[in-house]
């Protein structure tokens, strides 16, 4: 079959012949419709992501929309390595049928970034009964903007969206979010902007898609002087690390606040938990609650897709 193939961690992926995926009992082969080129896909292909097994050659891709033998469109993924989803044929362990009205390529582009914020949001709502105020760091990327939309749709009392893309922030403000531009290049300036937002409404949940110095600015904004009892708990969830893989965590913040810092991602969230949430997510793409701007590339133009940048998500489709 034709597939995107990564031969070494440093090599640009190419379109080439690759063995058909191994058959699995009870699982029919699916024909690719579209597979999103997500940050995690790049990280796994290059060996930089913690989930990489460093085995090459491989077919990249963690999820896709595909067509069954009887013509149904399904969302699927988690193919057994070395096979991924950027190939003409897929054999995968699950299928979720797309409802009428769902754009299959938008689903392919948006489901992976959407699930990253959705899981901690739904976990918090189940645990606390409500979301309260949600602060999203890195809100102008696709994952962050979908998290803002998800928090609003799940009934958050207030959603604060922090990021550096002013045009994207304006769109989120139009949806009902409070926006915090992170202007300048200094964490001190970011901490001041975040501090002003935090002073208006203490977040019950922080979704951090960027980490690094932005996280350090958030820690400074969340800190407080004095030894009075902390009135409200904060869940701080680390999801992405586009701004840096390391951040300094002040000891005083942990002692002075009822704050819980955790991560959310493959490994800490089970595959079964994520699969159970997929139908609800897909419904939101079908009804227009979620949007995922995308740019389409056929398998034969994978090198262009790999170089793709901007506000849209690259989606690989068959030639």
Automatic annotation (TrEMBL):
It comes from the Bacteria. GO terms for molecular function: oxidoreductase activity. This is NADPH:quinone reductase. It comes from Actinoallomurus iriomotensis.
